[in-house]
Write a structure and sequence with these properties.
With 514 residues, this protein is of the alpha/beta class. Helices cover 37% and strands 16% of the residues. The two termini are 27 Å apart.
């Protein structure tokens, strides 16, 4: 899902320091210090036993499966759920980790298969699973939802399961997946940019081989930092492992870290955030439409950008810009004036609902919670969405895996691991982003299609960053092969039924083009 917020002074610093995140479901950003939040188990064969300091961990259970069904479009869709682990080996062939995979499959020939990854780093795939595209979903992540609401799963009318099998991958350290080596070795094998891409690509390859699915049409969906992973996994599979994907869906992706740099000189950081702030205001006033957003985007690309570049050389244009930004956002005129029309994300999230004593979420600024430290110089409370969503998702996933599927495991489930995020190596490969891999993968395969999707209100991975990035890509044949679509909502726009339905429709159209 997400990029995990850190206690940083600016969203630009967050992107630079984080790399990071809790947009699979849901996961850079403003100030916010987050609180951490069937079959009998079979012993692993002797050859599989790890030799490191974590060898004493009890073995994970053997694969377990269960038959289920949902009602979709007035019809019964029957499917199999399988939960199991795949080994991850070091360069010497020793098992260094175990990746737990939850797969939903439907009987039938020529079924495509879609692999799903969330972000963080440190987020499990439960956000995409129970929030967006799996056959069951939980109500969470919207204004008014509470972490103590019953964690009840219901049929998901927005699922993709009727047109593709779904394989949800939990990276090492998330969900029930785990490292079996010491922390120093785990950092090298799992918790840095390139090794992360390499072992996750191998998990995709191994699942395809194990399940005799190399001949299937293959897709990948990644959310937030999973959106950063998406192009790189695609390119690595294509160029190193010999597996070509047919399409990629990037949900609220952390795609291009460098696009928001140099906020003192470049208009780009402020061009990225202004449209999402304006979208939140339009939604509050029930005026959010594609036409209204087209006007905001046109202003952002045009007069707003040129006025910022003029700086003090044109005071009259600056004053006009400040007045228009005030109108677009409905913020306090003094706040906009003293910000120079440059709306820093952390400050905005505290300002938008200050009179109500509330904080806005960086993932959707129309989702709020009370601010327990309203007079502190920086935000000290957890993000409103993260504070409300982790508990119900964790409860639902653990109950589903252990009781419904019968995969009896004696371990903690990490929907969002701050420990993984802490250990992550923010290296130069991260700063390069994944756009070069996206360009190479699209250039190498003239049939590959990429759909980049965002919620208009998202300030953790703003949609305008992807729009500006794709604007600069060469066409490479059909200009629709790499497309950006936006929907009402935030980082996890799919928590809105109408946006989840629109996503399903757009993805189905992409799949049907193959």
């Amino acid at each position: 899902m997400y990029l995990i917020p850190m206690n940083v002074p600016r969203i630009q610093d967050f992107h630079a320091r984080l790399a990071l995140l809790v947009c699979s479901l849901f996961l850079t950003m403003p100030a916010a210090r987050l609180a951490a939040q069937a079959e009998k188990p079979a012993a692993a064969p002797a050859a599989e036993k790890p030799t490191a300091d974590k060898a004493a961990l009890p073995p994970l259970p053997a694969d377990a499966h269960v038959q289920q069904s949902i009602q979709l479009d007035g019809k019964t869709l029957r499917y199999t759920v399988n939960v199991g682990a795949l080994p991850v080996r070091d360069k010497d062939g020793k098992v260094a980790g175990e990746v737990v995979v939850t797969a939903y499959t439907v009987d039938g020939e020529n079924r495509p298969v879609t692999f799903a990854l969330n972000g963080g780093p440190g987020a499990s795939s439960v956000y995409l699973n129970f929030g967006a595209i799996g056959p069951k979903r939980i109500q969470a992540g919207n204004e008014g939802d509470s972490p103590s609401d019953p964690a009840v799963l219901s049929d998901n009318p927005g699922t993709w399961l009727d047109f593709t099998d779904l394989v949800f991958i939990d990276p090492v350290g998330t969900g029930f997946s785990r490292s079996l080596v010491a922390e120093a070795e785990a950092k090298k094998l799992f918790y840095s940019t390139t090794p992360d891409i390499q072992y996750l690509s191998r998990v995709v390859y191994d699942w395809l081989v194990k399940n005799s699915r190399l001949g299937s049409k293959k897709y990948l969906v990644g959310e937030s930092y999973g959106g950063f992973r998406g192009p790189r996994v695609t390119h690595y599979l294509q160029s190193e492992l010999g597996v070509a994907l047919n399409g990629v869906v990037l949900v609220s992706p952390y795609l291009n870290p460098s696009v928001d740099e140099n906020e003192d000189l470049s208009p780009l950081p402020w061009m990225m955030t202004l449209p999402s702030i304006a979208a939140a205001r339009l939604e509050r006033e029930n005026k959010l439409t594609p036409q209204a957003m087209a006007e905001v985007i046109a202003y952002t690309r045009g007069e707003y950008a040129t006025t910022l570049l003029k700086g003090r050389s044109d005071p009259e244009a600056t004053q006009k810009m400040i007045q228009h930004v005030t109108e677009l956002t409905a913020l306090d005129p003094s706040f906009v004036k003293y910000a120079g029309g440059r709306l820093e994300t952390g400050a905005y999230l505290r300002e938008a609902h200050r009179e109500e004593g509330k904080l806005s979420s960086v993932y959707d600024s129309n989702v709020t919670s009370f601010d327990p430290f309203p007079f502190a110089p920086e935000q000290r409370a957890n993000d409103p969405i993260l504070a409300s969503i982790v508990a119900p998702l964790t409860t639902a996933m653990v109950d589903f895996v252990t009781r419904t599927v019968g995969w009896k495991v004696d371990a903690r489930y990490n929907a969002l691991s701050y420990e993984v995020n802490r250990m992550w190596d923010r290296d130069n490969d991260l700063r390069k982003g994944s756009v070069p891999d996206l360009r190479e993968a699209v250039a190498a395969d003239p049939k590959l299609r990429v759909l980049i999707v965002h919620g208009w209100n998202d300030l953790s991975c703003p949609f305008m960053g992807s729009v500006l990035t794709v604007d600069q890509m060469p066409v490479m044949g059909d200009p629709t092969r790499v497309a950006v679509h936006e929907y009402p909502g935030g980082h996890m726009f799919y928590t809105r039924p109408s946006s989840r339905a629109a996503l399903r429709k757009d993805v189905m159209e992409m799949y049907n083009k193959h």
